[in-house]
Amino acid sequence: MKIKFISLLLVAISMLQADEITLKQLEQWPKSYSRDFFIWRYLDQNISAKSADKAFYLINSVNWSLLHRYAKKTKKPRFKMADKCHFLKPKDLPAKDPSCSAIAITPYKFSKLSSSKQSELIKQLKNFPNIVKWMRVMASNDPFLTLIEADSDTFFKIYNQCGRVWRNKFLNHPLPQKLIDQLATRKEFAQTIKLIVTDNNMIDAQKSLFKVDSKKLNHQSTFFLAMNAINFGRINQAKKYLESAYKKAYYRFDLDKTLFWLAQVDPKGKHLDELLKSFDINIYTLYARELKKLPLPKVVTPDFKKSGCDFNISNPFEWIPVLRQIKNYSSDKLTKLAKKFSCDETEGHYSFLMERAARYRTEYFPMPYKNAYKDLPKNDQALILALARQESRFIPSSISTSYALGMMQIMPFLVKSLAKELKEPFDLDKMFDPIINISYAKQHLKFLKRSLYHPLFIAYAYNGGIGFTKRLLKKRGLFKKGKFEPWLSMELVYYDESRRYGKKVLANYIVYKNLLGEPIDVVSSVESLTKPDRTDRFRASK
């Protein structure tokens, strides 16, 4: 077993050093998202259709990025057609082949067509009754009235996929209570609730959510209903939803989030005291400690002087066996294993294992690879560390499901752009070197900081993109002065990942600022979010 493992590592290392990836190398790698990334790269090389077919069937998780590259290499017509048709734009519809139109069309694309094109498409797809059914609803004289009379599948297909512009124009009406009761039993209703509550233009629809029975809803949907009630000043209703959301919460972060809001709507309760009992360090617990004039919780920051642990930090396939190995490890076994990573270049790996050994009751805030950012002001150092802790837990060989790379999780298209800016060769393998990866992140942050000055907004942009953040600040009516602001706005960010990510990074930032000797308080940091001149260029007065 040990010989086989060493063999895998040698193959992996040789592949990373090679100019081109080979099929043999791919076949010897363990099934994983990391291997998928290298398959994605392999499919971009000058290979035969037969080789592409073999590589495709090694994939762990298929996505459109892989399918797109595979379609260019294979001789299988179904894949080529699916790829070509999937990426058709509204202006290309209807396609010549009805089957192609059927693959391409979505409620969002349909909303972009003229009435004549819509009619043409409905006629063309007469042999696809399930598609025609929802298209007829959208093309009707009164889409909303037609939609609320449709079956639940059709309702969710349209409401959840039509796009914000069309939804605002045609669907901003109160939903009948009978329909709500029917929809609330379906899991798709969670997306409907989010789309309504997080859209400042859906006021009439928002008002119809006050009486939603939350019994069958998950934590986040119930929490959104509470935020919706707060937004309309219905505090008693919000409290009921929050109490329900608390019972449904699984993660400590969500429990703390709910306790924080219970303390806001019921200040005479004991919710803040309960929040202080949490073992998790997050923006809510930091705020509670500050209100009670308590110091920041103790954290561990390893500072190993030794180097040269027998571990290749830049090899994506060396960390994977460790992750699989520790799934059922006891705390003692995890602690013993962590000692093998007691080196300066593996402080992230050590911290990851020790947090798991402590069952996340002790939090680690490492600061590895200092040479890569020690030239920066403390604000920027804290920001890089805060982002890295959330992005990869300081694991240099990390590869995400979307192929974001390295410690700072930089997407391949961005690597290419940044390499050009830095006048360096485009080399994705270099992203597994933490020093180089951080240098690319520093370059990207320079760009983001031209428009964004607050760590929360920079975090939104780092995760969701600068365009997303600009739309969020200019078109969603968020982060303005008002009761419960800016906390309420932080809960109404419409992109799920960025909403949670931003709060996590902000908490990390506050802790790292303290560790770097420049402590900041939570209240002033959060309250500045409603002051555009201090936070972003997009809303700042000219």
Biggest sheet record: none
- Unreliable sequence segments: 1-18
Report the structural category. Answer: mainly alpha
The N- to C-terminal Cα distance equals 66 Å
Helix content: 55-70%
Shape: globular
H/I helix tally: 33
Q: Approximately what portion of the residues adopt beta-strand conformation?
A: under 5%
Multimer state: single chain
pLDDT averaged residue by residue:
95
Radius of gyration: 26 Å
What's the number of extended β-strand segments? Answer: 0
Helix and strand layout, with pairings?
Blueprint: H1 2-17, H2 23-28, H3 33-42, H4 49-56, H5 64-73, H6 77-86, H7 98-104, H8 107-111, H9 115-124, H10 129-139, H11 143-148, H12 152-159, H13 164-170, H14 177-183, H15 189-197, H16 203-207, H17 219-231, H18 235-248, H19 252-265, H20 271-275, H21 283-291, H22 316-325, H23 331-338, H24 347-357, H25 378-391, H26 412-421, H27 434-448, H28 455-464, H29 466-475, H30 487-491, H31 496-515, H32 522-527, H33 532-535
Helix pairs in contact: 4-5, 5-6, 6-7, 9-10, 15-17, 17-18, 18-19, 23-24, 25-31, 28-29, 28-31
Structural write-up:
The structure is a single chain. With 542 residues, the chain is mainly alpha-helical. The chain is built from 33 helices and no strands. The protein has helices at residues 2-17, 23-28, 33-42, 49-56, 64-73, 77-86, 98-104, 107-111, 115-124, 129-139, 143-148, 152-159, 164-170, 177-183, 189-197, 203-207, 219-231, 235-248, 252-265, 271-275, 283-291, 316-325, 331-338, 347-357, 378-391, 412-421, 434-448, 455-464, 466-475, 487-491, 496-515, 522-527, 532-535. Helix 4 (49-56) packs antiparallel against helix 5 (64-73), helix 17 packs antiparallel against helix 18 and helix 25 crosses helix 31.
